Amino acid sequence: MRLSIGPGALVAAAFIGPGTVTACTLAGANFGYALIWALVFATIATVILQDMAARLGVGARLGLGEALMQSVGTGPLKWAAGGLVFAALAIGNGAYEAGNLAGGALGAEAIFGAGSPDRRIIVLLLSLLAAAMLLYGKYKPLERLLIGLVMVMSAAFILSAILVRPDLSAFAAGLVPRIPEGGLLTTIALIGTTIVPYNLFLHAAAARHRWEAADGVKAARADTVVSIGFGGLVSILIVATAAAALFQKGIVVESATDMARSIEPAFGAAARYLVGIGLLAAGLTSAITAPMATAYALSEIVGGDADKRKTLFRYTALAVVVAGASISMLGLKPVSLILIAQYANGLLLPIIAIFLLVVMNRKALLGTHANGLASNLAGGAVVLITLGLGLRMILRAAGLWPT
């Protein structure tokens, strides 16, 4: 079977956004290599859940939004459930879009340095570019563009990791699960920035577009493993880069661009440009995929003929871009906005994952592509671990868990 890269790369483009760059940079700068294991777990968990979403899209020819509407019966309950899902996606992705655009602007500022245009101008330009691609771009050219940006972004962060030469023995020690003192929120942020609930909607819809028959399930699964595995590797390298360049020096990091500035004296201007290009590409890819996910979800929930869905898709995507751009221009700190979204993701994830597990066990819907025992055990383990981490954070906040 020839490997066909596509929807899995869109998911990688979505989760390696400014939120990932920021969370991974802060993890490496504050805790060294100690939280590498969290990203290894998050990558494996993402493959498990996104594989289910891909099988749903290709095997059942359904998006996750459609599966939701078919699973909650009829009447007010059905529309209440659909409304809640859309509201959560719209509000969450509006905040994400703000972080994506602000993060992309930070990348541009790192590249241009003192001569950089005003951040609001950069945000506006990125917003217009994202909106144009969403309104006028067709799926396949858009997919190719995002894959290209992922490769540029990945190359930038891989080269950055090579420049700083991580400590391999410390890296290996970081594969052993433990949460260092003060590291719980960062652990949840790393998981929340990788296993993103809205990507489940995006993947199911994109996989259905890419493979038009159920016999494409094998190709979809291979694409998921390779693309998301590669994306997870890039995230791990960002942590390793920050750990090597910042942790031992005790440098306080307030944004991902601080990493670029801090390694510039040792490695020259090239390091600043590499990190800046990576962050700019990360912001642009995520600025396109977040509105796509919301638009797919709403068009699936509302239903209707192809023309109605297409119109609704475009207006919804445009609304998310406008909302994100508006928030970005308010002058809020992008790092704070991004990290709050990651914490919320980590807490929301178990709920979405439980629903996905329920849908994937409907043999009448999926036939031979429904979950088997291994998939259910793996998915159940992901739910329990993420639920346990989220519950621990809540109990600590309430003073019922030792710090």
Give an overview in words.
This protein has 403 residues and is mostly helical. 80% of the residues lie in helices and 0% in strands. It has a single domain (7-397), classed as Amino acid/polyamine transporter I (Up-down Bundle). The protein has 17 helices and no strands. Helix 15 runs antiparallel to helix 17. The mean pLDDT is 80.
Keywords for this entry:
403 residues; Amino acid/polyamine transporter I; 17 helices; globular
CATH architectural arrangement: Up-down Bundle
For the record, the CATH class is Mainly Alpha
Mean pLDDT: 80
CATH superfamily: Amino acid/polyamine transporter I
Beta content comes to under 5%
Number of E-state strands: 0
The residue fraction in helices comes out at over 70%
- Report the sheet with the most strands, covering strand number, pairing sense and barrel closure: none
Rounded to the nearest angstrom, the radius of gyration is: 20 Å
Give the helices and strands as they follow along the chain.
Answer: HHHHHHHHHHHHHHHHH
Counted by DSSP, the helix tally is 17
Shape: globular
